[in-house]
Amino acid sequence: MPRTNEHCENCYRHPKTPSCSSGCGVDKHLDEPLKNCAKCRMMKYCGTDCQKAHWAEHKPHCQNQSARNALRKSLGPDFVALEKSFRDWCKDNSKYLVGFAVSALGLHEDRKARIDSHVFLVGIEPVQISYPGQNTTSSRTIRYIVKSARCATMDEIHLLLDNKWGGTAEEAYAITEVSCSHRLGFLRMIVMDSSGVLPVPFDTFTIPTDIAHFSDEFIQTNYNPDWQRDLLKTFGQPLPPPSE
């Protein structure tokens, strides 16, 4: 069933949008806007009944995100500004990464088999950080470039991320699953700070993206075998030498 990214995590209903005219799979749209979970500020619900019904599934991720929010505030304004620049880069460029991810994950070969088992993993590094007193017109200027990008399996991602979250092994496994995609069928993308500037767990940003509106024909015709080269070119990374 096609769904928007802005839907109730329990009943999947959402307020009507212009894109719903093409068929969103919802019989009755919501009259009121969705409300964020008061603790993690990430998941959205149509009301308290749906939030309570979804709590058992959402609880590990919610508690982890709430702890991250509290830790973020305790690290001071310099860290908050740096981490915000990382998150802003991820959010601002997510729409551009989607096209590369579709090719990198090989969805043109078998969309159903790969979309829930593979992840587009991108590593970025800051290349310019300036502070007050260094002839800058702003308090901080940060630019990022892509250093690496590849397709990874979910098994690889669990080895990479589970130890970042704390808690039991089962809880950490569940947090990684929900962070990568809180709904089956979403494109899984992860951006990581590969420079070591940001501490764990703030060095990782997950971007689950609904691509239900991408037809199989669209994915087939837009497959780019040179996606990695074009990605590095797009984000200012020097191109690798041509292979012999």
Describe the protein in words.
The protein has a 4-stranded mixed beta sheet with strand order 4-3-6-7. Helix content is 41%, strand content 17%. The longest helix has 28 residues, at 77-104. It has 244 residues and is an alpha+beta fold. Helix 1 (48-74) crosses helix 5 (169-180), helix 2 (77-104) runs antiparallel to helix 7 and helix 4 crosses helix 5. A hairpin with a 7-residue loop joins strand 1 and strand 2 (44-45).
Proportion of strand residues: 15-25%
Query: H/E series, N to C?
Result: EEHHHEEHHEEEEHH
> How would you write the strand order of the largest sheet?
4-3-6-7
Q: What is the chains' assembly state?
A: single chain
What percent of residues adopt helix (DSSP H or I)? 40-55%
Descriptors for this entry?
4-stranded mixed β-sheet; two-stranded antiparallel ribbon; 244 residues; 17% strand; alpha+beta; 41% helix
Summarize it.
With 244 residues, the chain is of the alpha+beta class. It has seven helices and eight strands.
Which helices and strands, and how do they pair?
Blueprint: E1 35-36, E2 44-45, H1 48-74, H2 77-104, H3 107-114, E3 118-130, E4 141-153, H4 154-165, H5 169-180, E5 186-187, E6 189-193, E7 204-206, E8 209-210, H6 216-221, H7 227-234
Parallel strand pairs: 3-6
Antiparallel strand pairs: 1-2, 3-4, 5-8, 6-7
Helix pairs in contact: 1-5, 2-7, 4-5
